From TrEMBL:
GO cellular component, one term: plasma membrane
Transmembrane stretches, start-end: 21-43, 83-103, 115-134, 146-166, 187-209, 263-284
A biological process term (GO) from this entry: transmembrane transport
Location in or out of the cell: Cell membrane
Source organism: Jeotgalibaca porci
Protein name according to UniProt: Carbohydrate ABC transporter permease
Membrane topology: Multi-pass membrane protein
Keywords: Cell membrane, Membrane, Transmembrane, Transmembrane helix, Transport
Signal peptide: none
InterPro entries, per the entry: MetI-like, MetI-like_sf
Pfam families: BPD_transp_1
Domain ABC transmembrane type-1: 79-284
Family according to the record: Belongs to the binding-protein-dependent transport system permease family.
Amino acid sequence: MQKSVQKRVFISDIVFDVVKWIFLIFFFLATLYPILNTLAVSFNEGLDAIRGGITIFPRQFTLDNYRSVLSKKSLMTGAYNTVLRTVIGTVSQLFLTSLLAFVLSRKEFIFRTPITLLFIFTMYFNAGLIPNYLWLNRLGFTNTFWVYIIPGMISAFNLLVIRTYIRGIPESLVESAQIDGAGYFTIFMKVIIPLCKPVLATVALFIAVGQWNSWFDTMIYNGFSERYTTLQYELMKLLSSVTSQGANANDMKNAGASMVTPMSIRAATTIITALPIVCLYPFLQRYFISGLTIGGVKE
């Protein structure tokens, strides 16, 4: 009888594993195929891509789609501003948000509850687009690079995430540092920051992706300033200028007599947009999962 039960359990485990792996393989292929297809279309000749039937390999290989996108003079300026805002915005927001999160995690700080509630309030209610524009314009941030950095230096959501993680750090570590004569800033830099690498890496990825993909603030605050344009805004304008009827005459000409089309342009811009983040993610992957499980276990 016991052997029969063990055999049924063993067979059920095998069936479960088989179904699980079939599902995971199917999910992996379903996720990977659109990326490979977009990459193939981006390297395929434009008119040939319209015929369809391209899977994961280009049928008529060409670099004209990327040449057409990268031939824009404003694109290099946009790429420079995007990289700059991503680096500065990520570092500044991560440092200031984590510093504030450390302050609000301290039990001896008597104003931690009202300040936390104030930040939570801003997550659900805001003044709206027009008041924000009028306020930033009055402060002199419009048509400047700093409109990308200063208004978003503190994120309420990231603040709560980091504060929750800091609360899970044993208080004895902080008390030991205080006994050794360390001040709060020293404790923050030498105790809290090293122990918060998983959550900081996760939040840094969120911030970097948000800064890299942002184009709406460029259109609203710096839409008339080519000096402070961003890559995403330039690519958005490029996609908007390519109609469904076909690309404009200048874009469709090239030395090899091949032509770019809206489909091929969209594919190339998608790859250009996603490539930096795709390259960044593997370096943060080992922290990403542990950062997402914050608060999942309570003691």
